[in-house]
Amino acid sequence: MIPWQPSAASGVRVPGPAFAGASSMVFSSTTFLFAFLPLTLLAVWLSPARVRRFVLLGASVLFYIWGVQEFVLAVIGSTLLDWALALGIRQARETGRRRRAAVLLCVGLVQNLALLGYFKYAGFFAEQITELANALGQDGTLAVSVALPIGISFFTFEKISYLVDVWRGDVEPKRDPSQVLLFVFLFPRSIAGPIVRLREIQHELREPRPRLEQVSAGATRFAYGLAKKVLIADQIAPVADAAFAAAGDGSLTTSAAWIGALAYALQLYFDFSGYSDMAIGIGMMLGFRLPENFNRPYSSVSITDFWRRWHMTLSRWFRDYVYISLGGNRHGERATYRNLAIVFVLTGFWHGAQWAFVLWGLYHGAWMLIERRMGWRAVDGPVRFVPLRRAITFLIVLIGWVLFRAEHLDLALDYYRAMVSFDGGLTPAVQTALTSQRTWALAVAAVILVLPGTICGGRWVSERLGIAPLAARTATLAFLFPLALVFAFSETFSPFLYFQF
Length: 501
Fold this sequence. Notes:
Elements: E1 4-6, E2 13-15, H1 30-46, H2 49-68, H3 71-94, H4 98-135, H5 152-168, H6 177-185, H7 198-206, H8 212-249, H9 254-285, H10 303-309, H11 312-323, H12 333-351, H13 355-374, H14 386-405, H15 409-419, H16 428-433, H17 436-449, H18 457-463, H19 467-490
Antiparallel strand pairs: 1-2
């Protein structure tokens, strides 16, 4: 199985040497901030409109090669096959050969899922086969070590959505393969989303048109995301790391367990939403309008509401291409529950080849079913007891994050035991991690957490009109961005949490 090891810089579980993206160009790295990004922006802005797409495609392929080297050939080959299959599907539909169109769609689905399955899940299934054989008294080990190309989970889903949309007639296939290649490789979102559908950016793919107002708003959004990443997420990460490490050696106390879980919940949100803000900001500076991926998820009043706000592009993907394809809620209550359970098992497994992720998906799916059964899922219209419902929902999510963060089930169980053991005091490692700088970052994150749910920071700062948003934009560019650059320059390599998926 692909080895996981903690990163000394950020504490995120990052794959070991077998992970092909271990040296990828992170948005918060000095190489990206001071070389790749400014040079790419200048090249795109100064290029004639007719060649701008090819300049951006070349930069995006270079960005991807930086992290995965030879794996880029597999991605290019798979993308060109999708391009040809999409043209064949459209032709078959136009000539009334629906069976042929369905066969071509199946070929595309199989080749994409096979690529994802081999790179991401081969080690997991080999381990399960070995354990089953040992349980049956058969000695031996089936060892499979496969390097994991960075971002494969994201662009695989995007490629599948393109084929399905062409098959459904929702989008016209692109005759120019460079547009499909740019769709897959577009560097702001090629590694960790947001998950984009081709129809959402099809006009920009043909001819990117950066505009001055987009550049200004995009720069502000990027600066805001960078500040969330390096000033908050990276600073509180060691607190979560210390807590989960203490759970592994049996020294974790109850207070340290809850502080560590809170630190991880905040770290994960500020890290991933910070990446999304940066990706959206870069996209705007290049003339692309990428979809939003977060909407204050910790302000949710139910788990159903949470999944409308957290990683929204993934939630919509599973809804449109799995849940609805299974029948959605059109065939009765029992079928609806089954379809929701399938979606959340797949959601957990999508995040990683570990049973802890599968159980995390089942945990959220179970709460969704309970809410639907009890009538607690409604989020449209007036909601009673909002502060209480927000607190309960956050507690449910917080408990689930322990499964998400733990490297294996035994560690998760040890952590849960510590959360309810009522041991006093702070674990020494957690107390050491809580330096003044990290305590301050944790306090700022907690304050942001309890702000009114209608304030969505990134969009509010970069797009809203008025004195307060203008002051926030000015402060972001004049104070937070330079400070974030100083931290980015002085810190060691710190990958984004969702790079592992």
